[in-house]
Design brief:
This protein is of the alpha/beta class and 427 residues long. It has helices spanning 42-53, 69-82, 96-103, 117-126, 143-151, 162-178, 187-196, 221-224, 229-232, 242-250, 252-265, 303-310, 325-328, 342-353, 357-373, 381-392, 401-426; strands at residues 32-37, 58-65, 90-93, 132-135, 155-158, 181-184, 204-211, 272-276, 282-288, 293-297. The chain has a domain at 32-188: 3-Layer(aba) Sandwich (Rossmann fold), CATH 3.40.50. The protein has a six-stranded parallel sheet, sandwiched between helices. A four-stranded mixed sheet has the order 8-7-9-10, covered by helices on one side. The structure holds nicotinamide-adenine-dinucleotide and magnesium ion (MG). Residues 186-188, 257 line the site of magnesium ion.
Length: 427
């Protein structure tokens, strides 16, 4: 057993290792009790589906939604029916007017936590007998709940990759200090974790992340300026929330995942590669020092990596689609095109730069994606907004959470200003 990074890091890339190969995980009680943040989202709903499939193994201690109060009430009612003997979960509702509606809901009013981000942190810190945080929030809003889960020494099933992009070393240090467990939900990182299982760091050469290539994999550069929002949201293989779907179309998602892999596995950026794999059935690979490659394959079903994280790297039974290798046919891989998809290069450069650069990148991207979804800017404007913000805010060190949050806020203001100018110019 080792507790060191897989590859020795240079001082510039000193991500603490959280993911030592073959480290023992804690023994948690059965049933394991979950805090599900972002319960009404794609990851959250799939988590509750797993609870319904394994009611003897999983319970819910707390839930959160942003504004979809009637959906979260229906989730609480479904849990009451599924596990009548289990106390109802606490409920955090972050949006202020939605919280007011929840406060008069007969089912939710006695379960309700404070509104806003404080409710998320309270859910993680105070939910009774909670063991595992499933962080299915979208964006940097996930960082503080991740840190709260780390401080409580929980198992953290992390879908919210932005926690690691923005929090980086803060998260890795908090996980180690709190004696917590950080397990990836992202399918690529779950695949890598499975390939690394039982290996020594000296055996590993490279991590290879696969990318579907998104809906514009074959779209010529000139046409990318004109693509519609509907085309952006039409992901070829995965059905996900709107923000990650846009990130998949720009390849920013893969850039964020490179940064996530760096922090999660303690591997230097030189040893993390991206290949486009349109089939999306090879979820990622590890290359060993003798040239051997290990990959993890399967149909695109997020419940598989989600369950693998929650269970503590176990293959519990699941009626997911089975990959038909004969029908699958060829293994196809391509080089990512950094000219047509500048977001990938911007993210990899910000990751290498480290410090505040990934925070600025992430904040500018979140603001630009929201502006695209609100029809305020075009698809091709997204990398321009991000690049401008990175230029306007040179990277500095991140010493603590307050610095990270202040830089995040400043980058959002910078991006807002740039978007105002772009949308005014457009008309
Ligand atoms: P989603 O948009 O479907 O759900 C997000 C959830 O967060 C919702 O419950 C929403 O109410 C809540 N939320 C949104 N804004 C909030 C805010 N400001 N404060 C508090 N709560 C807020 O998103 P998703 O697709 O489930 O993705 C969640 C995370 O998982 C993202 O980081 C994404 O990159 C990652 N992820 C998702 C998938 C997938 O298949 N959906 C796959 C891999 C990784
Ligand atoms: Mg992924």
């Amino acid at each position: 057993m080792t507790n060191r990074p897989i590859m020795p890091s240079s001082p510039a890339e000193s991500a603490a290792s959280l993911y030592p190969c073959g480290r023992p995980l804690k023994q948690w009680p059965t049933p394991m009790r979950l805090v599900v943040l972002g319960a009404t989202g794609s990851i959250g709903q799939q988590t509750l589906d797993l609870v319904a499939k394994h009611p003897d193994r999983l319970q819910v201690a707390a839930l959160s939604c942003h504004s979809r109060v009637s959906e979260v009430a229906a989730q609480v009612a479904a849990l009451k029916k599924l596990q009548p003997e289990v106390p109802l979960p606490l409920v955090a509702v972050t949006d202020s007017s939605a919280h007011k509606r929840a406060a008069v809901d007969p089912l939710l009013r006695d379960l309700l936590l404070p509104e806003g981000p404080a409710g998320l942190v309270t859910a993680v810190s105070d939910a009774p007998d909670a063991h595992c945080l499933v962080n299915g929030l979208v964006g940097a809003a996930g960082l503080q709940p991740t840190l709260a889960g780390a401080a409580r020494g929980m198992r953290i099933a992390l879908a919210n990759k932005e926690s690691l992009v923005v929090g980086g070393d803060l998260v890795t240090r908090a996980v180690v200090a709190g004696g917590a467990e950080l397990l990836p939900v992202d399918s690529e990182h779950s695949a890598i974790a499975q390939c690394l299982s039982g290996r020594q760091e000296s055996e590993i050469s490279r991590l290879i992340l696969t990318a579907s290539g998104g809906p514009f994999r074959e779209t010529p550069a000139a046409k990318l300026a004109e693509v519609s929002l509907a085309e952006v949201l039409n992901h070829p293989t995965w059905d996900m929330g709107p923000k990650i779907t846009v990130d998949s179309a720009t390849l920013m998602n893969k850039g964020l995942e490179v940064i996530e892999a760096h922090h999660l596995f303690g591997v230097s950026y030189d040893r993390i590669e991206v290949v486009v794999h349109p089939g999306s059935f090879v979820h990622s690979l590890v290359e060993f020092v003798d040239g051997a490659l290990l990959a993890q394959l399967g149909t695109p079903d997020m419940r598989v990596p989600l369950q693998y994280a929650i269970s503590g790297e176990k293959h519990w039974p699941l009626a997911s689609g089975r990959l038909d290798l004969v029908k699958t046919g060829m293994l196809r891989f391509e080089e990512p095109d950094l000219v047509r998809f500048p977001c990938l290069g911007l993210a990899m450069a910000a990751g290498r730069q480290g410090g505040t650069a990934p925070i600025v990148l992430n904040a500018a991207n979140e603001v630009a994606v929201a502006a695209l979804l609100a029809h305020r800017i075009r698809y091709a404007d997204i990398p321009r907004v991000i690049e401008d913000c990175l230029t306007a805010m040179p990277a500095g060190p991140v010493t603590d959470l307050d610095t990270a949050l202040a830089v995040d806020l400043q980058a959002r203001t910078e991006a807002d200003g740039r978007i105002d100018r772009l949308s005014a110019a457009a008309g």
